[in-house]
Amino acid sequence: MRRLRCTKIIATLGPASSDPDVIEALHRAGADVFRLNFSHGEHADHQSRVETIRALEEKTGRPIGILADLQGPKIRLGTFEGGAAMLKNGARFRLDLEEAAGDETRVSLPHPQVLESLEAGSILLLDDGKLQLTVEKAGKDFADCKVTVGGRISDRKGVNIPNAVVRMSPLTDKDRRDLDFALSLGVDWVALSFVQRPEDIAEVKKIAAGRAAVMAKIEKPAAVEALDGIIELADAVMVARGDLGVEMPIQRVPSIQKHIIACAREAGKPVVVATQMLESMIAAPVPTRAEVTDVANAIYDGTDAVMLSAESAAGKFPIEAVSMMSDIAEVTEKDPAYRKAIDAKHGHLEATTADAISAAAAQVAHTIGAATIVTYTTSGSTALRAARERGETAVLVLTPVLKTARTLALVWGLHCVHTRDAENFADMVNKACKISFAEGFARPGERVVIMAGVPFGTPGSTNILRIAWVGEQ
């Protein structure tokens, strides 16, 4: 099942896509990774989906990645008398810890860490930014505010705080339970919401302890400010445009998206673009022209993956949405302007043997017109370096570690095959040629470029570059 594109597709599973036949159809339509959204559903639902994915993987013989997306803290107001209140522009309004129902003068904000993080000048956005408060005075258990954008507000609406670092962990008690459960299921990626600082990533990586790679969702201004440090610690980043578009001026989202993609590519870390990519396909069989352009623009910038949320989880046309996204990627990547854009943004090479070999492999493959680059990897680091090159030659990844193959399913341009490691140099060349032919990457008489490390099976030891001819199989 070779994809005719380099950009990967993540499809969220939900009520519209939990049936085994639908999950298989989504995979065959183009889904490379499946997302489990822990903001919804019970643990039993997620376990059933994981079991279905692993059975499908066994059936197709293709490694499939699974991403567990943690909900993160949801900052919400308390309740109001009668269920709602009208806040007038210029009025004074207090947030406090009192449990009593609110009115047009006050309401509970049952998050002491949030109140402690506020200071004069802090901005609070209510109900996805429909209303706005400016803090005039704050203490450890209250915040006196001025209503700068008024309107009707009802029970338990969300609160966003764009210009303050909230002193709270991105992991709630629910997230910790969900994380432990997801790790017990053997998921390949964990996505962390509400990231503000690199330390947030360190906390989750300590718990994961190598059992899953950690993805940082960039959705808060503080995360954008600390982007370099977050990218350094995270295994991947996601441009989570939903909350990002609430907490920052919405017109800045496109430039921030491009900045995040560029920084991730420079660091050689996978990057995902998510939220409302084909939103209209929740209810319609075809997307808008603007949505198609949005997906294509992320691909032109070199994103590793694009993600579907409600489109595949709860929409009426989940399979059509995945198929459309795959078609957009294929057509975009065939545009000559795509290769020019990718080549114009080449990452800086580190002074390491692995980086030198990876860059040389891409250049050699281009020069001799190789059919494919074959890279052996155990930990995945060699394959990530090959993907960072964004070369025009297809990359075939051979790994003896199934977990590595599943994790790399997210990464641009990598076609992963789970196979036993090479026993010696001759076996390395023979296996690379045979699998290149079997997977449809090379025909007899064509050449392949092989990257590997000696001693075999040693992570991070890439030190060999070999050109081989594919013989009759």
Kindly describe this structure:
The protein has 473 residues and is an alpha/beta fold. Helix 1 links the parallel strand 1 and strand 2. The protein has an eight-stranded parallel barrel, surrounded by eight helices. The chain has a six-stranded mixed beta sheet with strand order 6-5-9-8-7-11. Strands 19-18-17-20-21 form a five-stranded mixed beta sheet, with helices on both faces. The protein folds into three domains: 231 residues, TIM Barrel (Alpha-Beta Barrel), CATH 3.20.20; 80 residues, M1 Pyruvate Kinase, Domain 3 (Beta Barrel); 117 residues, Pyruvate kinase, C-terminal domain (Pyruvate Kinase, Chain: A, domain 1). The mean pLDDT is 94. It has 17 helices and 21 strands. The two termini are 20 Å apart.
In short:
This protein is of the alpha/beta class and 473 residues long.
Question: Main attributes?
Answer:
single chain; 473 residues; alpha/beta; TIM Barrel; M1 Pyruvate Kinase, Domain 3; Pyruvate Kinase, Chain: A, domain 1; 3 domains; eight-stranded parallel barrel; six-stranded mixed sheet; 17 helices
CATH fold call of the largest domain: TIM Barrel
CATH architectural label of the largest domain: Alpha-Beta Barrel
Straight-line N-to-C gap: 20 Å
Can you identify the CATH class of the largest domain?
A: Alpha Beta
User: Helix/strand/pairing class, anyone?
Assistant: alpha/beta
Strand order of the largest sheet: 1-2-3-12-13-14-15-16
Q: What fraction strand?
A: 15-25%
Domain unit count: 3
The biggest beta sheet is recorded as: 8 strands, parallel, barrel
